[in-house]
Specification:
Layout: H1 10-16, H2 20-34, E1 41-43, E2 50-54, E3 58-62, H3 70-80, E4 91-98, E5 104-111, E6 116-117, H4 118-121, H5 127-145, H6 155-178, H7 184-199, E7 207-209, E8 218-223, E9 226-232, E10 239-241, H8 247-254, H9 259-269, H10 279-288, H11 293-303, H12 313-321
Antiparallel strand pairs: 1-2, 2-3, 3-5, 4-5, 6-8, 7-10, 8-9
Helix pairs in contact: 5-9, 6-7, 6-11, 7-10, 10-12
Amino acid sequence: MLPLIRVDSWDDWTRIYNDASVWQPLVDAICYREEISYRQLRSASANTNAVFLLDRAYALKIYSPFWDEFEFERTLLEALNDHEEIPVPDVLGYGHIADGGGGSWPYLITRYCEARPFSEIRGELSEEAALSLAAQLGGIVRALHDLDAGQLASDTTEQVWADVVSERRQKAVVELTEAGVLADILVGPLESLLDEAIAADLPESRSVVHGDLGADHVLCAPVEGGWTIEALIDFGDAKIGVLEYEWMPVWMGFCGRDPALARAVIDGYGPGLLVDGDFPKRAVAWTLLHDFGSDELISQWRERSQPAPIETMQELGALLCGVSILR
């Protein structure tokens, strides 16, 4: 008999999601169903779903009940397996497993990747190697954005995107003002900028975006003469959305706000990113409309010594998208 796993609140989830002892009975049931075996079970780091590594063979994700990510991530990963220019782990199994109380838990099994996250190796890399990986990431992201999003779009993906944009439009400026990040003088112009960005968001111009390309989700491996990106992982935040939605995690996460790395990403992506000169404005808008853009901005702002409220769009742009590197 499988145990009941009761999660009524976010606090409940944070107490158990990376506790292997809680999930092992479900993990064993999934493995029995999928006809796989393992000797060692360990929790993966840097996740908000329950992710476990089985030996050095499989990665198993059991999805949080607070987001509806499973179907799109599974569908997208299976589609990407046909695109060698966008390296992702192979999907080996998926489904739903019931706990002892009748709760249904979606799960996804992918092949384990031996490569190391960019966050782990950054300090070991020469500047040349780091810039090479950044340029590779730019090319991979461009290939992702060039996919035919219409083949993956559905009423569900449209609703997910609309819900994120609506919620962030309502909360972003309020959250930043209450945190002391924004001066009152900037509230009106910023709200106008967000409205302008949303008005320009047309379904026919949307792309597939990963949505969380921080340094933990870019796995790298040494090759003769350098390093290569072996896989992008964790497409749980992927959406059919605006391509500028991709920028904030790349700039603040992968690049760590390093202008040289950001420039290399842009060069790898290609000149089309900056062709009309309005990218900085769009990047600021879609950073604040990003699902966790406000949290990242507040965190970056608080890291500055004796922070004062941001008073100009130029200052906000420098923090959110590195305006100087885009000129």
